[in-house]
């Protein structure tokens, strides 16, 4: 199979969808890998490294997109829509519920679109997990940074010092991102509360995380009560394939202290905080209602070496199966891959996505 790896053109996106060692793995299996020149530069992988791994390097994005399977990191942007065609398979983070225009373009073109973030295995989201872990850890680091007074924050040190109480971190959602945010915040010495609705998950969190991490059943009243004393609010809610639920309204936000900071990890799925809108690494924050908002839609791109290695480690087995046996057989061999199929032959095959966009849902033929 011909596999294409283009340069990521999203603002601040320095990741690449496959490492040179991953390319060598695919080439050794008899597949042709075409990489756009400079695709790995931001992650520390030169064209020469890919060339030595057996890849074909081209300066033409069009040649890359003519491959049977195009593997990316982030969703295609309007400049790439002209490359869509009926024979194309696209495998990447899509987050289509938050970009209706892209969904329409994919439907109209007949592209077969698979989303990393909806692939499942044993009730988990294995391709999303490493990026969620990085974003979770980052959310605390960025939050602590912007709490500094000269960055617009209230001037609170999350870990406190002897004789001074630590800062309070409230996390919405106890999934992978929320867990790693809590662990990082606790490591800094902050007082941490995770709001969650799954009782079993809360029991797990209480036993697995440090003692200064507490869990609380997530209700509107509990969220409002927590906001009044929160220094750093982290939105880490995910409904696979669907738009993130708005758990914090503007009215609720006004209950927070002036200079508090919020980080909405779910912004690429529409965000779980009403006042959020996507920002970039070049211009990551804005202030509304006196609260510093950090809403970068591709947070792990700040650490592209780590992110690219982690992403390749989980996506490569799926890419190899698709390349070796074709999509249909790969889905039989790896049943969780079928949940990654979002669009097929002009139809939406992921129920949560169809519901979010108000479009017809068609049964996944491979499920």
In terms of DSSP E residues, the strand content is 15-25%
- Nearest-integer average pLDDT: 96
Distance between the termini: 23 Å
* CATH-level-4 superfamily name of the largest domain: NAD(P)-binding Rossmann-like Domain
Remind me, CATH topology of the largest domain? Rossmann fold
Describe the largest sheet.
Answer: 8 strands, mixed
The helical percent reads: 25-40%
Q: Topology as H/E string?
A: EHEHEHEEHEHEHEHEHEHEEEHHEEH
Explain what you see.
The chain has 367 residues and is an alpha/beta fold. It has two domains: 175 residues, Rossmann fold (3-Layer(aba) Sandwich), CATH 3.40.50; 174 residues, Rossmann fold. Helix content is 32%, strand content 17%. The protein contains twelve helices and 15 strands. 51% of the residues are buried. The model has no long low-confidence stretch (mean pLDDT 96).
């Amino acid at each position: 199979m011909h596999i294409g790896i283009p340069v990521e053109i999203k603002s601040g996106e320095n990741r690449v969808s496959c490492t040179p060692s991953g390319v060598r793995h695919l080439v050794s299996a008899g597949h042709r890998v075409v990489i756009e020149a400079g695709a790995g530069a931001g992650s520390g992988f030169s064209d020469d490294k890919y060339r030595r791994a057996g890849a074909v390097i081209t300066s033409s994005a069009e040649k890359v997109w003519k491959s049977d399977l195009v593997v990316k990191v982030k969703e295609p942007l309007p400049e790439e829509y002209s490359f869509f065609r009926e024979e194309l398979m696209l495998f990447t983070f899509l987050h289509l519920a938050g970009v209706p225009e892209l969904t329409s373009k994919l439907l109209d073109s007949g592209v077969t679109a698979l989303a990393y973030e909806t692939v499942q295995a044993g009730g988990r989201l294995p391709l999303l997990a490493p990026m969620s872990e990085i974003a979770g850890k980052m959310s605390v680091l960025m939050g602590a940074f912007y709490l500094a007074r000269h960055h617009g924050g209230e001037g609170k040190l999350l870990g406190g010092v002897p004789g001074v109480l630590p800062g309070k971190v409230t996390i919405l959602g106890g999934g992978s991102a929320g867990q790693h945010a809590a662990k990082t915040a606790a490591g800094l010495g902050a007082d941490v509360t995770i709001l969650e609705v799954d009782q079993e998950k809360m029991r797990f969190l209480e036993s697995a995380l440090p003692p200064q991490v507490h869990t609380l059943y997530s209700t509107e009243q509990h969220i409002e009560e927590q906001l009044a004393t929160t220094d750093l609010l982290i939105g880490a809610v995910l409904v696979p394939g669907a738009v993130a639920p708005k758990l914090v309204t503007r009215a609720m936000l006004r209950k927070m202290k002036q200079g508090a900071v919020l980080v909405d990890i779910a912004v690429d799925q529409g965000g779980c905080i009403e006042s959020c809108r996507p920002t970039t690494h070049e211009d990551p924050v804005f202030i509304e209602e006196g609260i510093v908002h950090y809403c970068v839609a591709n947070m792990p791109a700040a650490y592209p070496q780590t992110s690219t290695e982690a992403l390749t480690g989980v996506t490569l087995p799926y890419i190899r199966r698709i390349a070796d046996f074709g999509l249909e057989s790969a889905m039989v061999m790896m049943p969780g891959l079928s949940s990654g199929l979002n669009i097929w032959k002009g139809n939406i095959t992921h129920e949560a996505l169809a519901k979010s966009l108000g479009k017809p849902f068609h049964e996944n033929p491979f499920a």
